[in-house]
Amino acid sequence: MERVDLKHEAPADDTPAHDEAGPTGPTAARDPASVSPGDPARCADRESGSVPPGDPALHADRHAVAPLLNCLLREVAEPHGHDQGRDVYRLPGTGRLLRVRGGRRPADPEVRDAHGWRPLGHRALVALVAEELRRHTGLANDELPAEMTTGRDTVAALLAARSRSSPPADLYLRSEQALVTGHPHHPAPKFRGNGPPARWLPYAPEAHARFPLVLLGLREDTVAEDGDTGALDTLGSAPPGYRLLPAHPWQLDLTAPALAAAFADGRLIRLGTTPAPVWPTAAIRTVYDPDADLFVKFSLDVRITNDIRRLWRHDLLRLRRTDTAARRALAAAPGPAAWLSDRGWRTARFAFEELAVLVREGLRGPLLPGATPLLAAALVEGFPGNPLAAARDPHAWWEAYLTAVVPPALAAYADHGVVLEAHLQNTLVAVDADGTPVQALFRDAEGVKLLPDVGRDAGWERLVYCLVVNHLTEVAAALAEHHPGLDPWPAARRALAGTGLPEAAALLTAPTLPGKTNLLLRWTGADGAAARYRPLPNPLAAH
């Protein structure tokens, strides 16, 4: 797919070089040497972890502290005034006072004791959070604190790996591999299981990984599939009596004991690997083959944020229904918005969820000519070449962003009863040669909900959380941080009011928005699908 030049210079010596062997295209990063130290583009590069400054351990702490603090402050802590320019909170379970440097990424936490304010590193913060939650909920949990600590160590391993690797030259792939901090409101967004880094680093998008897929032959009488899976057969060839089944090498490692009998009796055979490497996207278990313009999604028996990331049977069996509904809704939506279709899946009957493979439509068909898709989450976290940071007219950029994203998501809900999971990691925003948003592409039929199944009130709450709280508020905050003085909310109000949707009109006067409580959800052991929300102040109403 042809990419477009966003009019950035080639990187200077203090920016990682492009991967010569990766996908090529004229999407080079802006030259950090050409901007002042306070320039938003330089800030974005630093935030992304591309150039770890100072002590690597301290930098890893900062990446891990911010989302944990965001959770604690959103879900548990009570505002308690200010002290020396910092925000102070009271923790109701323990009664302790916490002081932080506020902002989109809160940092430098301190706890008050008999001797004054004492700094908290990540491990001490984890201990404080665990004590608070035990008293606040009356429940004990040894698993989550371990995940928080391991997640911080994962960040350290990722930063070390990024210092030895080069980001892809292709700006889209660079955006998919930019998320070193990850989910801004999760206590352990980078937890990768308890294995050593050597087990997962070869497959980590944040480490700029790329790798070949393992090709398996699956005996024909054991195949289960649905939809259009023909793209899988283009990845290689299988002998007579077998069908081709690509596998993620990490998942094969994780499930090796369970699959040993199938390899022994010939239900599964190994056929080598794909000739070209694939690139893991931000979702980790979804990979992209640029040559074939194909996304492939796998089960991965690892907890990532709230859930073990398997392709669950019940989701696969409803996939064609949700995918068809989302595809039709976006085709009828205003503007050029598009849906990346989950066209079909294939697996083994004897390892239905373990070996499931999902085929997702590539970018070339839906993408506007000359546009470059970028992961919305990466626009928030920052990466070299980020057009959000470099926008010459941030007001116009934000208006264009809202026009691309908001009307199609609300039209899908209002006109077709389709609730898109339009959060930051499921939305691509395509930009033109000047970096201006021109199109939204939505993905992931697994996360789509249909109003006949969930009800209108629950569907609207989920859409508001995904689209407004998880998505628009984060982009708005990042844009305002990079462009001081910008007030993003009047434009957001106009975008929502212009849809004519009664629920959207009511949202503009509602005092609160629903904020998902990931910390409490994980502490209490609730299923990730059982989302619980806490009322948050509504910036739309405040304006």
Write a structural description.
- 37% of the residues lie in helices and 20% in strands.
- The longest helix has 27 residues, at 456-482.
- Helix 2 crosses helix 4, helix 13 runs antiparallel to helix 15 (456-482) and helix 13 (394-416) runs parallel beside helix 16.
- The strands form 7 sheets. It has a 6-stranded antiparallel beta sheet. A 5-stranded antiparallel beta sheet has the order 1-2-3-4-5, covered by helices on one side.
- Strand 11 and strand 12 (294-298) form a beta hairpin.
- Mean pLDDT is 90; it is low at 1-52.
- It is of the alpha+beta class and 543 residues long.
Question: Can you give me a brief rundown of this structure?
Answer:
With 543 residues, the chain is of the alpha+beta class. The two termini are 42 Å apart. Residues 1-52 have low confidence and may be disordered.
Helix-strand layout with pairing:
Layout: H1 40-47, H2 56-75, E1 78-83, E2 86-90, E3 97-101, E4 107-113, E5 116-119, H3 122-137, H4 143-163, H5 171-176, H6 197-200, E6 214-219, E7 223-227, E8 242-247, H7 249-254, H8 256-265, E9 268-273, E10 279-280, E11 286-289, E12 294-298, E13 300-304, E14 307-309, H9 313-317, H10 319-332, E15 338-339, E16 342-348, E17 357-360, E18 372-375, H11 376-381, H12 387-390, H13 394-416, E19 418-419, E20 427-431, E21 437-442, E22 449-450, H14 451-454, H15 456-482, H16 489-497, H17 502-507, E23 512-516, H18 518-523, E24 533-537, H19 539-542
Parallel strand pairs: 15-21
Antiparallel strand pairs: 1-2, 2-3, 3-4, 4-5, 6-8, 6-9, 7-16, 10-11, 11-12, 12-17, 13-14, 16-17, 18-20, 19-22, 20-21, 23-24
